[in-house]
Specification:
It is built from 1 helix and 11 strands; from the N terminus they run αβββββββββββ.
Amino acid sequence: MKRMTTAALTVLALAAATVPAHADATVKDGKVNLSVKGHGLTVRRAGGWIDSLGTGVRARLYTVHQGERHTLTRWKDATPITYGAVRMSNVGWTLNRRFTSGTWLCIEFNHADGTPCAQIHR
């Protein structure tokens, strides 16, 4: 029996906040949202937002493949945005990167509990 890593347990715990993606998906977990744009196994852009404003809000992307978590991007400052009554903090990356089928692409914010993930597959 294989020992499950923390990342694998995180993925299992977040199963309700995940969605299969052909490199194109939007996923929400609590106040945290993930958007993935691409085609096939190639992700062109990825980013996310949280449904609130705040100072010092940052986010980063990570992947989980075969139970191993790998940091994909460094922490990046989110941009506060207000549209009438809608208030959010937004961040995005241009990746232009091909992933192995079955890889989970996830986002985490330093000021929120949710970590939505999208599985990249054929």
